[in-house]
Amino acid sequence: MTELAPSHPQEKxxxxxxxxxxxxxxxxxxxxxxxxxNSPWTAQVSALFVGSFLALLSLIFVVKAAIMVxxxxxxxxxxxxxxxxxxxxxxxxxxxxxxxxxLVVEWGGFTITTFAFLTAAxxxxxxxxxxxxxxxxxxxxxMGGYALFIFAFDVRFxxxxxxxxxxxxLT
Amino acid sequence: xxxxxxxxxxxFVHELSFWWVIVPSxxxxxxxxxxxxxxxxxxxxxxxxLTLTMDVEVGLAFMVALYCSSRMGAGIPAILVNIPGTAGxxxxxLDGYPMAKAGRGQQALAISFVAxxxxxxxxxxxxxxxxxxxxEVSYHMHSVEMIVIMLFGISLIASIxxxxxxxxxxxxxxxxxxxLIGTDxxxxxxxxxxxxxxxxxxxxxxxxxxxxxxxSEAFMIIEQRSILTEMGLNILRGAGWSATLEGVAIALxxxxxxxxxxxxxLVIGVIPGAGAAIASFVAYQQSRSFSKTPELxxxxxxxxxxxxxxxxxxxxxxxxIPMFILGIPGGATAAVMLVVLQYQGVxxxxxxxxxxxxxxxxVFIVMAVTYLLMMLTILPLARYMPRVTMAxxxxxxxxxxxxxxxxxxxPRDYVFDMxxxxxxxxxxxxxxxxxxxxxxxxxxVILGPMLEQxxxxxxxxxxxxxxxxxxxxxxxxxxxxxxxxxxLPFALEYKRNRRRATGAA
Lengths: 171, 505
What we know:
The complex is a heterodimer of chains A (171) and B (505).
Chain A: E1 13-14, H1 15-18, H2 20-36, H3 41-71, E2 74-75, H4 84-89, H5 91-108, H6 110-125, H7 131-152, H8 161-170
Parallel strand pairs in A: 1-2
Chain B: H1 5-16, H2 19-34, H3 40-46, H4 48-53, H5 56-81, H6 93-101, H7 105-140, H8 143-160, H9 165-179, E1 182-183, E2 190-191, H10 205-221, H11 230-238, H12 241-253, H13 255-270, H14 276-289, H15 302-326, H16 332-343, H17 351-355, H18 357-360, H19 362-384, H20 393-409, H21 415-434, H22 438-461, H23 473-504
Antiparallel strand pairs in B: 1-2
Helix pairs in contact in B: 1-19, 2-5, 2-19, 3-16, 5-6, 5-7, 5-15, 5-16, 5-19, 6-7, 6-15, 7-12, 7-13, 7-15, 7-19, 8-9, 8-14, 8-22, 8-23, 9-22, 10-20, 10-21, 10-22, 13-14, 13-15, 14-15, 14-23, 20-21
C-alpha cells in the first residue's frame, strides 16, 4: 500500500499536494452523480460502480493523510507542487503565455501566434539571453510548421492574417 | 483463397516495383505518426483528392505504407520526449522514456524499430496465410468477449499501481471516471459535461493524450538543462554506432517476445473497434505478467518496450482482414481505405482474392514490402534521432507546448480542445509532482468509455441480467485467462520469495 513514512527523517511530508487529486476526484464524482440522479439506469450503472470505488479509494487516502498530520509526520503544505522553482524557472510565466497562446491563436492564426509565443516563452525561460538566436529559432519553427502543415498538407490549423495573406498571394 | 508460393513471389516483385511511392510514404508516415493529433487516417483523408486520382494499386501502396510507418513514427517522441504520437503508442514511454533519460536513446529506438518492423512483418506474412480463420475471430467477438479484452488492458492499471497501490488505483479510477463524461450509449443522456456541448461526445482522446503526457512533461522538464540526466548526457555524447547495433541485438535476441506480442496485436486488430491502444496495453500487461523480471518494467526494460511496439504493428495487418473478407473495417484507417477502394469500384469480399489477387493479397504483400523497406531506416534513425534529447529544455518546452496544443485542435477544429489539453496538462503536472501515474489515468480515459459501451450493450441484450457476462464459451475462456494473467505475477513473486528464503536458510 501507499508509503506513508516521511520522505526525510526530520522533514514532515507535505501531503497537501498529494491530496489535490483525491479531493478533486471526490468533488468530480459528487458532481457527476448529481448529473445522473434522474437518468435511466443505463446512464447510471457504470458511473455508480466506478464512482463508488474512486470515492472509497480517495477517502482512504484522505483519512490516512489526516492520521499522518495528527501524528505530526506530515503537514498540509503543497510545496511539492508549488515552490520557489516555479518562479525561478519561469513556470508561471510559461503557463500565462500558454493561456494567452490559446486565446489568441484562433484569430491570430498559427504562424504569427506561434512565432510570438515561442519567442516570448523561450526568452522568459532563458532569462532574456540570446534574443536574436531565439527569434531566428521561433521564425524557423513557425514558418516550417506553416510550410509543412498548412501549405503542403492543407491541415485545418487556426487561420489568421498571415495565412490569409499567403493564400491570396499564392492563388 | 489459396496463395501459391509462385503467386506470392510474383506479387512480391510486383509490389516492390511501387518502391517510389512506398519510400516517401514511409517518411511521411514517420512525421504524421510522431505528431499528436495527426494520424494515418487523418493524413489519408487530407490527401484524399490526391489518393483518388492515383491508380488503385498505387493508392493502396501509398495508404498502406503511411499506415504502417505512422505506427512506428508514433513511438519516436514517446521514447525520446515522453510524448506518444498516438494513443496506440501510449504504453511505449513506460519503458522507452527511462531508457532515453539514461542516455540509452539509441538502444531504445533501435529496440522499438526492430520490434515494430519484425513484429509487423511476421504478423503480415502470417495474416496472408491464415486470413480466413482470423476473419472468423471477428464473428465470435461480441460485447461479452470485448468486455473481458478491455479488462485485460485495464488490469495494467493494477501493474502500474504495484509501486504505490493506493495512488495508482486512484489515478486509474480517476481516468475511468473522466472517461465516463459524455452522453450514455443507449439514451444519449448527458453526464458530467458541465453543460458544455463540446463534451457531449465524451472526452476527446487527443487533448487527453497531449495534456497528460506532452504539456505536463513540458512544464516539468524546464527545471533541468536537458531531459537527460548528467550521466545520460555523457553516455549519449560518447555513443556511436555500437550503441545502435547493441539495441538491434537486444531486440533480435528477444525474437520470441516480438513474435507473441505481435500476435496479440494481430488478433486484437482483427476485432472491429478494438485498435492499437488496447493491443499495446494488453501486450504490455501480458509481457509483464509472464516475465521473469516484472520488477524491471517501468525502469527501462527492453521487453517493456518491445511488447507495445510489436503489438501495435501487429494490429495493422489485423485491422485489414475483416475489411477485405467481411467488408467490416477494423479501424479508422481501414475505414478510409474502404472508402477509397469503393470509389475505385473494387468489390470487397472473399472473391476479390480470386478475381483480383493483386489487390486482395497485394495489400498485405505491399505491407510486407513496406516493413522490409522500413528496416533500412532503422540504423540511421536510431543513430541520430536521440540527439534531440540533448536540446536545451528552455527551447524544447515551448515547442512541445505550441505544436502539441495545435495538434489537439486539428481533429475537431475546437479551440476548446486546446483548453482541455491544458487542463489535462495541469492534472498531469500535479499527478507527476505527487506520485500519481499519468499512464494509469490515460488507460482509464481511453478504455473506460469502450468498456462502458460494451457493458451496456451486453446488459441491454440480457435485460439487465449480469450472468450474461458468463454466457459464452469464448468469454468464459477469456475470463479464465484474465484471472490467470492477473494472478500469475503474484504466484511467481511468491515462488521467488520462497526460493530466496530457502536459499538464505
